[in-house]
Design goal:
seven-stranded antiparallel β-sheet, single chain, four-stranded parallel β-sheet, 31 strands, 879 residues
Length: 879
């Protein structure tokens, strides 16, 4: 008797198989075995002429979805059907959330089993959890299936209805998404705020003091003559001036100098000391979004990368299910954590009673428990013997779970107030320091603040907590303040004046964006990674360091949606939709009527798109009027450009904008420079050595280059020779001789003494290099293509191959191949990042972020490489 168990992934299948006895066959579906069609090629021929076919949803027939099995899943379905013919029972063991329920339903609907079917769910992949699930099987949950179906159909209707409108009204190849557009609006609103931001300036000072016991202390100025000194939070972020209604003294540099001069001659005494003991409670265990935020903040992981690593940890049985918005821990988990804490840190480290956390997210149901180490042993990362990204992420999860049952941390917060007054013996007025501003200071107050841990409690888990601060932003490192008695006189060593400028609102990192989506109730934990990835893939945003920066195209799309479909990018409306989908999942709302009303209702999407299509003037939304800017930004077929109205006949001048220019950073000076460079045209450097052709320095969309132009050959269709400037050569520093040299490349340096073959200096795609026969070597920063000699080139070429090219750097470890148990890594090669697996070097697709590739995607690329080996081209024989 054979029982067929079907899961989603190869890794999960392998792990589960190890826990099952003989008689079980475990196969994977590699995710969804069918979906709505992604292209016209996937639409069956019998439906192609239907006007709803492009949507993939029959809006005329109760919103019946058109499900197709994509080409890459055809073999998977055949394998599953073949295995089912040998089985006496089918067990669907896909993940326990809506997505997993939907995958399980598609498996059931496609295979049409004629044998008994059981549905099992488990929160962790351990032997005990699998056995428990097998002993208590259930059935597929229709409510969860309908909720996922509704979400998929809604997303398709919004995307496939609005996107064509964007193509017609803004630019081709654009897309709109139900949640994606809201996230994009968040990025754009933050960039708008940065553009209108006006910086506020203020000065304060820090006193370096000594106590009677010769201990050193620092104190910051708090008030002068009873008026509080302004800090950054007192300034209006839009005007850069003091916020209306706030009474505070704003010091400029001259005033700060005047005050400091007077304070240096005054008496410094302790007015009071105050201590307050506060308790820091350990944070709850991780939800999906909290884990994504922390992994981004701590390690710079993208949301997608975090989920890939977490998926691998889950499928290998290391952690519980990683898609959850619950902070609840099971009784088994609490007991296991308390046992581990007592073993490692002693009974005194334990909270006297088990600590429980309540989930604040409404209708939290993606899973029934927070993310924690699987099983009842709570092994540390060292005991697990994990490495790389898995070790980093597991350690975060383990510490969070352990901390939940440990003692609170107790912190002693100290505030020392210091009075600065005029000496009683000296009634003379303070002397002016010669500045234009003079404040008559009669008294001032400084404050010294610090914190020390009385009981570290759960913070003992974090090795650097007491020195560098805990992993949570609310915790700070120890800042001791020396003991000082009321009335004690202090000696002033020096008084540092510090100037400050208020900063614009910080751009979103992935962590901040996820937090904003969570705070607004938008999306679900499983969707954040794909949302952020899609925004970047569609060129609505690009990443610089850790910041997500919206493009001008994103500005145009958000402008159109805000003015014509405002409800679709309204935060509250989108949050309500999430709640409605939750109601469907709970069986409290019917999915079909909800979708019908959204799309075909009197105010439905279909009606509104039809009405707005006739009203929208494309020129209006292809233009952006930026604040504090005299030019117009337009969105063209090939990207954004600036337009300047010309005097005279009503024409205009245009110039392309750099694709990586943040909209908030575009200044009038930059715009003028772009137009000036275009108007000036190529800069003539001189002529070639024969004196016939002109050498020009030009600027293109990808940087500066030199070109060789023959004035007498213009119009004959021949393109001028062009050479990009090598890295490190600034355009303003290019000389005629350097330009001639570049245009002469490849240049013969001489002949190799061994075989009398040419040694050449060349400029390639990846920089300058020298070559001899078939040997090449790149030039380092210490060698210049302009000055390298034949002797030096021969010396470089003679070096052993390994010393000329260092071994590729390992950028990250993806994980182990699920079937062959060999490491899969991403390496930094000469031509960019690539996947290394044994003897296989696999190219990473251009649209794929190397940091986001997970085990399953890597295995897919590896298998494709095996089935499609690169063609070997015959070498062309040199004459």
């Amino acid at each position: 008797m054979t029982k067929l168990v079907i899961v989603e992934s190869p890794t999960k299948a392998r792990t589960i198989k190890s826990f099952l006895p003989d008689g079980y066959e475990v196969l994977d579906s590699r995710g969804h075995i069918r979906d709505l069609p992604n292209s016209a090629q996937e639409i069956p021929a019998r439906f192609k002429k239907q006007k709803w076919a492009s949507l993939g949803v029959n809006v005329e027939k109760r919103f019946e979805p058109l499900y197709v099995i994509p080409q890459h899943q055809q073999d998977t379905v055949k394998t599953l059907k073949s295995a089912l013919q040998r089985a006496d029972e089918l067990i669907i063991a896909t993940d326990e959330d809506r997505e997993g329920e939907s995958i399980g339903w598609h498996i059931f609907d496609v295979l049409q089993p004629q044998v008994p079917v059981r549905r099992i769910v488990f929160h962790e992949i351990t032997k005990e959890a699998i056995q428990e699930a097998l002993e208590h099987p259930g059935a597929l949950n229709d409510d969860l299936i309908n909720a996922q179906k509704a979400r998929r159909i809604l997303d398709r209707l919004v995307g496939y209805t609005l996107s064509p409108l964007l193509w017609r009204k803004v630019a081709p190849k654009l897309s709109a998404g139900r949640v994606q557009s809201v996230a994009m609006r968040m990025l754009v609103e933050r960039e708008r705020a940065r553009r209108t931001f006006v910086a506020g300036h203020y000065w304060d000072m820090v006193a370096h003091l000594q106590t009677d016991q010769r201990q050193r202390a620092q104190a910051r100025i708090h008030s002068v003559n009873g008026l509080r000194i302004a800090t950054g939070k007192d300034f209006d972020k839009d005007t850069g001036t003091l916020t209306e209604g706030i009474k505070a003294l704003v010091l400029d540099q001259a005033e700060a100098e005047a005050v400091a001069t007077q304070l240096a001659a005054m008496d410094w005494r302790v007015q009071s000391t105050a201590e307050r003991i506060t308790t820091r409670r350990p944070p709850p265990p991780y939800t999906t979004s909290a884990l994504q935020i922390e992994a981004n903040r701590r390690f710079g992981y993208s949301a997608e990368q975090t989920m890939q690593i977490a998926q691998s940890l889950y499928e290998n049985g290391h952690i519980t299910y990683m898609r959850t918005d619950s902070v609840h821990l099971s009784a088994q988990a609490v007991s296991a954590v308390r046992t581990k804490v007592q073993t490692m840190y002693g009974a005194e480290a334990l909270k006297s009673e088990p600590r429980r956390y309540k989930t604040s997210a409404r209708n939290a149901q993606e899973a029934h428990e927070a993310i924690r180490p699987a099983g009842d042993q709570m092994q540390s990362v060292r005991e697990k013997k994990l490495s790389g990204g898995q070790a980093s992420l597991y350690d975060l999860i383990w510490k969070r779970a352990m901390a939940t049952q440990m003692q609170d941390a107790k912190v002693n917060n100290v505030v020392v107030k210091i009075d600065v007054t005029r000496p009683e013996s000296n009634g003379a007025e303070p002397e002016s320091n010669g500045t234009a501003v003079h404040l008559d200071v009669s008294k001032a107050e400084f404050q010294a603040r610090g914190a020390t841990f009385l009981e570290p409690g759960y913070l003992v888990l974090y090795e650097r907590a007491l020195q560098e601060g805990d992993e949570h932003s609310s915790n700070s490192p120890e800042i001791p303040v020396p003991k000082m008695a009321t009335g004690e006189r202090l000696d002033l060593d020096r008084l540092d004046r510090e100037g400050h400028e208020t900063r614009p609102p910080a751009r979103f990192t992935e962590a901040r964006l996820v937090k904003a989506l969570v705070d607004n109730g938008i999306g679900r934990p499983s969707t954040y990674a794909s949302i952020i990835e899609t925004i970047q893939a569609r060129d609505y945003a690009f990443k610089r360091k850790q910041e997500l920066i919206p493009t001008f195209t994103a500005f145009a799309v958000v402008n159109l949606l805000e003015q014509t479909f405002s409800y679709l990018v309204d935060y509250a409306f989108t949050a309500r939709m999430e709640n409605d989908l939750d109601q469907i999942a709970l069986g409290e709302e019917e999915w079909l009527s909800y979708v019908e009303n959204f799309y075909l209702g009197a105010e439905g999407l279909e009606v509104q798109v039809s009405e707005q299509d006739a009203r929208i003037d494309p020129s209006l939304f292809r233009s952006l009027e930026l604040s504090n800017f005299d030019y117009t930004v337009r969105i063209g077929r090939f990207g954004p450009f600036l337009e300047q109205k010309s005097a005279g006949e009503g024409g205009s001048q245009r110039v392309s904008l750099p694709p990586d220019l943040p909209p908030a950073d575009l200044t009038m000076e930059q715009a003028k420079t772009l137009f000036r460079n275009k108007t000036a045209g190529p800069r003539e450097l001189g002529r070639d050595e024969e004196g016939h052709r002109v050498i020009q320095l030009c600027q293109g969309p990808y940087g500066h280059y030199v070109q060789l132009t023959d004035p007498h050959a213009e119009g004959n269709g021949d393109k001028p020779k062009r050479v990009s400037l090598p890295k490190g050569l600034e355009p303003d520093a290019v000389t005629l001789e350097q330009a001639r040299y570049l245009l002469s490349l490849p240049r013969v340096l001489g002949f190799h003494p061994q075989d009398q073959k040419e040694v050449r200096a060349q400029l390639g795609r990846y920089g300058p290099y020298v070559s001899h026969d078939r040997a090449t070597t790149n030039l380092s920063d210490t060698d210049s293509i302009f000055t390298i000699t034949l002797h030096r080139a021969i010396e470089l070429l003679s070096q052993p191959r390994k010393s000329r090219r260092t071994a590729p750097k390992v950028l990250r470890e993806i994980g182990l191949h699920p079937a062959e148990q060999k490491a899969i890594c991403v390496l930094d090669g000469r031509y960019g990042p690539y996947i290394k697996y044994g003897d296989f070097n696999v190219t990473i697709p251009k649209q794929t972020d190397p940091a986001s590739i997970g085990v399953e995607e890597a295995v897919t690329l590896i298998e494709h490489r095996r089935l499609n080996p690169p063609k070997k081209h015959a070498r062309r024989r040199r004459k």
